[in-house]
Write a structure and sequence with these properties.
This protein is mainly alpha-helical. It is built from 4 helices and no strands. It is elongated. The model has no long low-confidence stretch (mean pLDDT 76).
């Protein structure tokens, strides 16, 4: 998202609804992006990338979630 709508007269202003809709579209594409990245990088993907990609507080995650994430947390 940019401020393009603020200075470009032909573009509609961005609303909270349109921003959230765009965010949800991007979230919907995340699994396909992750699958494509794995196919491209495969085993060569540095583990440090996956390890630092988690921004959630691991202390608050359920044990079963932590178990599913274990392969990328090593």
């Amino acid at each position: 998202m940019t401020d393009y709508d603020c200075w470009h007269a032909r573009e509609a202003h961005i609303t909270a609804d349109s921003a959230i809709a765009n965010l949800m579209r991007n979230v919907g594409q995340a699994p396909q992006l992750a699958t494509a990245a794995i196919k491209i990088f495969g085993a060569e993907m540095p583990r440090s990338i996956a390890r630092t990609a988690l921004v959630s507080n691991l202390q608050t995650m359920a044990p079963e979630v932590l178990q599913r994430l274990e392969p990328i947390r090593k």
